[in-house]
Amino acid sequence: LPGGKSPVPGAIAIDKPTDYKDATSYNNFYEFGTDKSDPAENATKFQTRPWTVEIEGAVKKPGRYAFEDLLKLAPQEERIYRLRCVEGWSMVIPWVGYSLSALVNKVEPTGNAKFVEFVTLADPKQMPYVKSHVLDWPYTEGLRMDEAMHPLALLAFGMYGEVLPNQNGAPVRLVVPWKYGFKSAKSLVKIRFVEKMPPTAWNKAAANEYGFYSNVNPNVDHPRWSQATERRIGEGGGLFAKRRKTEMFNGYEPQVGQLYAGMDLKKNY
Amino acid sequence: MATPAPRGRRVPWLHPAAKPVLFVAALLPFAWLLYGAIANQIGPNPQEYIIRATGDWTLRFLCLTLAVTPVRTVLHQPALARFRRMLGLFTYFYVCVHLMSYAWFDQGLEFDAIAKDIAKRPFILVGFAAFLLLTPLAATSVNRAIRALGAARWQALHRLVYVIAGLGILHFFWMRAGKNNFAEVFVYAGILAVLLGWRVWHRFGGPRVVREPAARRA
């Protein structure tokens, strides 16, 4: 899946991309298992065609959108984003996709659309851990409307120049680089435009640990660990390499900082 | 075989090689981690892998250590007691590697950062407390210490292991909390509960204890 050069400011991180092997074998995708190696092992037979994404709620053009139509909705761009997991590790991934705002504009949200809810596939026949009680399935996520409209919020169809591997959220996923990785919902089946802040999977599981915003923030620790530093996966330096300092909004503060002007980010974690 | 076991019983754990074999076997997980780290065989996040694996092995050796007494009693194999000290010391060995990996990989050996982390995160505090409590047990494992303390006081001190086991499980539980991923925690907690429950039962009102001296004398 080729992607053209992106004109969006901040779209091309100068960091060295993570090895493809690491990016496709160290994954959090709990529908396929809770160990990092589970998704790559358990998603090999995951059927991603035919695939549709349902658009619901406060929009003028609701309906089922075929994957093939979504793919062609806007020009595919390559975006090299830093990915910071809430667990304290990070990668750099060359995604292929286009700004989520292109889809949002296409479906014409009404004035009642204040938030966007993302619903992901929960198919117990294909996803062995959907039967487990780790989370309340289906996995859902959400963004405020202005966050969803930010050009860096990406609807991704590919990575490393090819279509998304199953374990990375095929066939279409969200990537929000200034938020912790779990905000970037995988294998999307439904996008709902709503008036009230939607419930999100991790927030329902542990509200004191995972807030709705979940912006990368080195100054607000997770209750069980510090968020000040991160381990960059595959970075040289061997076993005793130092962790890197985590940056505000994962280094995207110049682009997204104004979205949160005046907000207490300690309270709105 | 060069040396027949006493009283003609040929049980493998009385063989002179039994202890060295156990010693080598107990080092295998450590050797695997060392090899895996050097040969790049333990995944994209080797630091995390080592920290978690050494924590797992600490719990496993703790279970093995605490299993010695019930197993030797139930199977009438008192000689198994000879392995208990080594297993206990390996528990301490793995917890030391676990702590060192955390301090080095996660905290860059910055001691003020570690102190802050212990104060801040209950699960780290509990794990660290378990390590501290295990230290005097490891230190008093030599025969001389047992003689110096006297058997009663030594035994009382070593009952701390039940507190340590509880703290270890709590440490693991809190580490997995928030992800609701408790299956493994419950396995270890279950094993330890059985091993502890057996002791309680054996000591207070277990029928076998009362009957044995009269009825079961061979």
Automatic annotation (TrEMBL), chain A:
Catalytic activity: L-methionyl-[protein] + a quinone + H2O = L-methionyl-(S)-S-oxide-[protein] + a quinol; L-methionyl-[protein] + a quinone + H2O = L-methionyl-(R)-S-oxide-[protein] + a quinol
Domain of life: Bacteria
E.C. code: 1.8.5.-
Free-text description of this protein's post-translational modifications in UniProt: Predicted to be exported by the Tat system. The position of the signal peptide cleavage has not been experimentally proven.
BP GO annotations: protein repair
Residues bound to Mo-molybdopterin: N27, Y30, E31, C85, T120, N168, R173, S184, A185, K186
Cofactor: binding details: Binds 1 Mo-molybdopterin (Mo-MPT) cofactor per subunit.
Molecular function, one GO term: oxidoreductase activity, acting on a sulfur group of donors, quinone or similar compound as acceptor
Domain Oxidoreductase molybdopterin-binding: 46-202
Keywords assigned by UniProt, alphabetized: Metal-binding, Molybdenum, Oxidoreductase, Signal
Enzyme superclass (EC): oxidoreductase
Cofactors: Mo-molybdopterin
Described function: Part of the MsrPQ system that repairs oxidized periplasmic proteins containing methionine sulfoxide residues (Met-O), using respiratory chain electrons. Thus protects these proteins from oxidative-stress damage caused by reactive species of oxygen and chlorine generated by the host defense mechanisms. MsrPQ is essential for the maintenance of envelope integrity under bleach stress, rescuing a wide series of structurally unrelated periplasmic proteins from methionine oxidation.
Family per record: Belongs to the MsrP family.
Subunit structure: Heterodimer of a catalytic subunit (MsrP) and a heme-binding subunit (MsrQ).
Protein name, entry field: Protein-methionine-sulfoxide reductase catalytic subunit MsrP
Native source organism of the sequence: Ramlibacter algicola
Gene: msrP
Automatic annotation (TrEMBL), chain B:
Protein name: Protein-methionine-sulfoxide reductase heme-binding subunit MsrQ
Subunit structure: Heterodimer of a catalytic subunit (MsrP) and a heme-binding subunit (MsrQ).
Species lineage: Bacteria, Pseudomonadati, Pseudomonadota, Betaproteobacteria, Burkholderiales
GO molecular function: electron transfer activity; FMN binding; heme binding; metal ion binding; oxidoreductase activity, acting on diphenols and related substances as donors
Gene Ontology annotations of biological process type: protein repair
Cofactor: how bound: Binds 1 heme b (iron(II)-protoporphyrin IX) group per subunit.
Key words of the record: Cell membrane, Electron transport, Flavoprotein, FMN, Heme, Iron, Membrane, Metal-binding, Transmembrane, Transmembrane helix, Transport
Subcellular location: Cell membrane; Membrane
Domain called Ferric oxidoreductase: residue spans: 55-168
Family to which the UniProt record says this protein belongs: Belongs to the MsrQ family.
Function: Part of the MsrPQ system that repairs oxidized periplasmic proteins containing methionine sulfoxide residues (Met-O), using respiratory chain electrons. Thus protects these proteins from oxidative-stress damage caused by reactive species of oxygen and chlorine generated by the host defense mechanisms. MsrPQ is essential for the maintenance of envelope integrity under bleach stress, rescuing a wide series of structurally unrelated periplasmic proteins from methionine oxidation.
GO annotation, cellular component aspect: plasma membrane
PANTHER family: PROTEIN-METHIONINE-SULFOXIDE REDUCTASE HEME-BINDING SUBUNIT MSRQ
Chain segments annotated as transmembrane: 21-38, 58-75, 87-105, 125-145, 157-175, 181-201
Record's bilayer topology term: Multi-pass membrane protein
Chief localization: membrane
Cofactor: heme b; FMN
